[in-house]
Design a protein that fits this description.
Blueprint lengths: L2 E3 L4 H8 L4 E3 H5 L5 E7 L4 H16 L6 E7 L8 H10 L3 H7 L3 E4 L15 H14 L2 E5 L1 H11 L4 E15 L13 E11 L2 H6 L3 E6 L3 E6 L6 E4 L9 H14 L16 H9 L4 H9 L11 H24 L17
Parallel strand pairs: 1-2, 3-4, 3-5, 5-6, 6-11
Antiparallel strand pairs: 7-8, 7-9, 9-10, 10-11
Length: 349
């Protein structure tokens, strides 16, 4: 791992405590290794902010490229925060104004909770677009997750997401549609990805706008797609960053809401997620809310598997490899006059 712990961000200590090797800033200064600086726009709600931060930084840190990775979390002031989360962001997160001044090589944008029927009605819409417009001109590639994917596709291509009849959540098998694309290098032709969303953007919508679909599920829909130039924007509609128990936590939250009378029906099970023995345990105490919530907080977790993590690492590793190549090309293009700026990695040859 070549992730640099360049600040007091608690995620760095968490990763180190869980066996990940990190470089201290002092050690990094004494190594003559290429640096990549990655912005991480975290728009997730308070309850998921730090978990999402850990998940994505861990994926970046799993990269095997010979480079030092500096990750800079930041958020948007327009997002409503509790006092505690606001203090956390103030203490540990960067300011976009500072990152814009220092420059970044790449950007990751997370999802967010929404309260309005149209994304452009959300308070974060214009501040998000300020970041996106800057990134369009100043970073090699942007990776979008879930809601961020829907927002950027609306802004950049006029694609409107479509409401689903029911929440789509679970773990779905996906097939690689474009094995020749560098994001799919050394990736299994079929792999799992978790999804959790109420809206969908289809293959037909993406292809009509000139985007390329790289991985799709018959049940879960499109997971991975890229912008028409093949590399500048990467779109995740699923959640490959999820921990093995992320969907369990979402399910437990919905069970709590049902027990509190905040929803009328017992939540549907996340599809293809709970093995049979886990479902039997849940059904055995389904009518006892206290026992069920306790079960979901303890015993069920040992029955769960992570069937997507290695593929997620491989794809993010490939993405960072693309960033590495693009930044090299940009810094040396005066010596390489034959490069096509619309196809810098020769993807169309």
């Amino acid at each position: 791992m070549t992730l640099v712990a360049h600040s007091d961000l608690p995620t760095f200590a968490h990763l180190r405590d869980h066996g990940h090797e990190l470089l201290s800033l002092e050690r990094a200064k004494h190594q003559d290794i290429r640096e990549l600086h990655i912005g991480f726009l975290n728009m997730m709600p308070d309850a998921a902010l730090q978990a999402t931060e850990r998940q994505f930084i861990r994926l970046v840190g799993s990269c095997n490229r010979i480079a030092q990775f500096f990750v800079y979390p930041f958020s948007l002031p327009s997002l409503t925060r509790s006092a505690e989360t606001g203090d956390y962001i103030e203490k540990y997160y960067s300011r976009f104004e500072d990152l814009r001044e220092q420059g970044l090589d790449a950007l990751v944008i997370t999802g967010a909770n929404v309260a309005n029927p149209h994304l452009d009605q959300e308070p974060f819409w214009e501040p998000l677009l300020d970041v996106v417009r800057w990134a369009d001109e100043n970073v090699a590639s942007t990776l979008c997750s879930c809601l961020a994917t829907h927002a950027l596709l609306k802004y950049s291509h006029g694609i409107e997401r479509q409401p689903l009849p029911n929440k789509r959540w679970g773990v779905y098998s996906h097939r690689v549609c474009a094995p020749d694309h560098p994001l799919n290098r050394d990736v299994n032709t079929r792999y799992d990805v978790p999804h959790s969303r109420y809206n969908d953007i289809s293959r037909a919508q993406l292809e009509a706008a000139g985007l390329r679909v790289l991985a799709e599920s018959a049940e879960g829909g499109v997971h991975l797609a890229v912008s028409p130039d093949q590399v500048r924007v990467v779109y995740f509609q699923g959640h490959p960053e999820y921990d093995h128990n992320s969907l369990l936590k979402e399910f437990r939250r919905e069970v709590r809401r049902f027990a509190a009378g905040e929803r009328e029906t017992f939540p549907l099970y996340p599809e293809n997620f709970f093995p049979e023995e886990a479902r039997c345990l849940i059904e055995s105490v389904r009518n006892d809310p206290d026992a069920l919530i306790d079960l979901l907080g303890n015993e069920i977790e040992q029955h769960l598997d992570n069937t997507w993590g290695d593929t997620a690492k491989a794809i993010v590793n490939n993405w960072l490899g693309i960033v590495y190549q693009l930044t090299n090309l940009e810094r040396t293009e005066q010596f390489m006059p034959g490069i096509d700026p619309d196809d810098p990695l020769n993807l169309r040859t």
